[in-house]
Design goal:
This protein is an alpha/beta fold. It has four helices and six strands; from the N terminus they run αβββαβββαα.
């Protein structure tokens, strides 16, 4: 989900709820302790220099039972970060500590924001010799060279 998308969703919801991949919810008294811009400069295993930029939201369970972040307040926090940090319309990454600090992609199911597990991937599969698709072979082609195969009833198998 991009920053522009969350701002549009926040205009339509009554509460800000984040659902974890296991179906549990971030406690409703969480705080958004950071909105930041993270740029990752790196080189992949194929030698290609890459750059990725995301907007990072850090959620924190403060055990502040009287606190409940309202959608309009989160819009205000986002707009302030856009102005002060010069944040553009990037994808959002959410950071939340459960058993360890996890980083999640963000989705929306019509009612709640969904924290989606992030996945690793090889960005240079063609350089690493990893096939993108399995080669498809017809079974009829497997017996095309009869000198290397057994005939039924020949006793070779």
């Amino acid at each position: 989900m991009k920053l522009s998308e969350i701002k549009e969703v926040l205009k339509t919801v009554e509460a800000v709820n984040f659902e974890l991949p296991n179906g549990n919810f971030v406690p409703e008294y969480f705080h958004v302790t950071e909105v930041g811009l993270i740029t990752k400069n790196f080189i992949d295993c194929g030698g290609i220099v890459r750059k990725e930029t995301v907007v990072n939201f850090q959620l924190w369970n403060a055990n502040d039972y009287e606190h409940r972040l309202k959608p309009q307040k989160l819009i205000h926090i986002i707009e302030l970060s856009e102005k002060v940090l010069g944040i553009e319309d990037y994808e959002i990454e959410v950071e939340y500590q459960d058993t360890t600090i996890g980083k999640y992609d963000l989705g929306f199911n019509g009612k709640n924001f969904i924290l989606l597990n992030k996945q690793t991937a090889c960005l240079a599969q063609e350089q690493c010799g990893i096939p993108t698709d399995k080669p498809k072979i017809k079974l009829s082609q497997l017996n095309a060279d009869s000198s290397n195969s057994c005939a039924p009833g020949s006793g070779c198998c």
